[in-house]
Every structure is written in C-alpha cells, then in structure tokens.
Amino acid sequence: MGQLTRGTTGYNRLRRSDRWLVHAPRVRAALLSAAQPLVVDLGYGALPVTTLELAARLRAVRPDVRVVGLEIHPERVHAARAAIEGITPDDVEFGLGGFELAGLQPVLVRAFNVLRQYHVDDVANAWTQMRTRLAPGGLIVDGTCDELGRRCCWVLIDDTGPVSLTVACDPFAIDTPSDLAERLPKVLIHHNVPGQPIHGLLTAADRAWAAAAGHGVFGPRVRWRAMLESLATDGYPVEPPRRRLRDGVLSVPWSAVAPLG
After folding, report:
1. Residue 46 lies in a domain
2. Stretch 230-245: mean pLDDT, rounded?
3. Per residue in 25-45, pLDDT tens?
4. Residues 37 and 65 placed together within one structural domain of the fold
5. Using a CB cutoff of 8 Å and minimum separation of 24, what contacts does 251-255 make?
6. How many CB atoms lie within 10 A of CB 88?
C-alpha cells in the first residue's frame, strides 16, 4: 500500500535519527522487551545503505535485532538483495511492501523521507495502516531530513497516535533553529504559520537562540544547550538532554505542537 517515491538516499544520511533511536528510553524499552525484536525500515530508497546502517546501530541495544527493509518498487528490492549478495548479513533482509508492512508485526518502523512526498491528507491513513500492524508496544518514526542529514525532524508514534516531535541538526549547519522548519514532517509543515503551536515553538527557539549568543564563543553545541535551558525556563516542555551530544536535539511532547483546528 502506497505510491512510488523518488528514492534518493545516501550513506550516513539518517545518522542523527539512528543515534536518537539508540538512546531514546521508550525506543530502547520497546526493543529490549520484545521477545524477537523485528524492525522495519520502510521506503529505504534506491540504495540499501541506511537499512544496513540502522541494523548495525541497533545491535548496540539488541544484538539479536532483525531488520527488514521494505520498498514498494520491485527493482529497488532486487537491487538491495544484489548489493548484499556475498556478505549476506543474517539479521538484514529486503522485501516488497508498503504501509501494510508486508504482513509483518515489527516493534519499530522507521519511515524516513516517505510521507514527505505524499499529500497531507494521506498522512492519517498511512499512520493508521502502520499502527494497526505493530507488535504490542511497537513504535513508528515518521521523519524527514535534508540530503546530507544535517537537518532532521521526526514524529514518534505508538498504537494510539503521535507521542512526540524531535528536531535535530548539526548546530554548525544552521543560522537559527527555525531553519529546521523546511524539514518538518508532512503532518506539521503546512501548520508552521502564526497561531499554530509549531510556529510558536520555533519562534521561541529562535528567541532563546539569539539570547544565548554569548555562549557561541564556546561553540554552537554549548549555545544549543543554553537555548534548551532557556526554553525550559520559559515553560516549554522540552526534554532535557541526557548527555553531551554532537547533535542539536530538541524534543517535545506531541501535545505541545499538535495542530489546532
């Protein structure tokens, strides 16, 4: 179920979301509690590299994780299988499938740069199709990033609906946090207008970023952390960073950015 997308991809393009997945408490809990951890990488594109990278990174959480890359175009599936011929990783395979997830029941679905290419009215149905096929306690990550993976945004979804929004970037690659607006998931990008919560959050982040300019002498990562602290002080439900990160990461509950009306 679905439609053919452009299929552009690249090595290490999804590294920021992968790093987040490895350390996010809820994702880790889902992987660790699964009897047989199955992960679907939906719409991996013309090359299978991001699926292989995802499997390698998730092994840090569950060494026995199994990753299935699904594509709606048979030629992409054939190309992926040919690419791994000879190395045959026994924990990674590729198959034909769309939002129906090829009948699988994964504990985690990563769908990056897929729904970005759909009409906004198609998002709810796509989410529903995937949610109803999750294993108990399963999660979905619906995200978008730029071509080099320096600016990323994603929504975490469980079997009841969206849980949180995360924006992540290389702090050296932005002028202001609102630069990430161009990579908002389809469900939010059209709502980035005055009066909507997502616009309010990005505007507040820009103000906090400007106020933290003095921290820039220590580097943009330190300035990003100061921005997060300022947002939290102003009452925004920002998830505090758990450790020093190379990425600039801002996560909030979905209720803080859910579109109005």
Report:
1. yes
2. 86
3. 999 999 999 999 999 999 998
4. yes
5. 251/164, 251/165, 251/166, 251/167, 252/164, 252/165, 252/201, 253/163, 253/164, 254/155, 254/161, 254/162, 254/163, 254/164, 254/165
6. 9
Residue pLDDT, tens place only, 41-84? 999 988 899 999 999 999 999 999 999 999 998 999 998 888 88
Question: Do 152 and 183 fall into the same domain?
Answer: no
Query: Of 126, 165, 170, 125, which Cα lies nearest the Cα of 146?
Result: 170
Q: Specify the 3-state DSSP secondary structure of 146.
A: coil
Number of domains in the chain: 2
Q: Is it the case that residue 241 has pLDDT exceeding 80?
A: no
Given strand 248-253, what is the order of strands in its sheet?
Answer: 92-96, 66-71, 38-42, 108-112, 139-145, 151-158, 161-169, 248-253
Q: What is the CATH number of the domain that holds 21?
A: 3.40.50.150
Q: Residue 7 — very low, low, confident or very high, per pLDDT cuts 50/70/90?
A: low
- Given 141, 169, 197, which residue is the final one in a domain? 169
Domain, as residue range, for 232 = 172-237
User: Is residue 6 situated within a structural domain?
Assistant: no
Mean of pLDDT over the chain = 92
Q: Indicate whether 74 belongs to any domain.
A: yes
Residues 153 and 212 occupy one common structural domain: no
Report the pLDDT value the prediction gives residue 5, as an integer from 0 to 100.
62
Residue length of the chain: 261
Instruction: Tokens for 160, please give them.
Output: 């009841």
Q: Are 121 and 198 members of one domain?
A: no
Residue 257 lies in a domain: no
* pTM of the complete model: 0.93
Distance from C-alpha of 87 to C-alpha of 195, rounded to nearest angstrom: 53
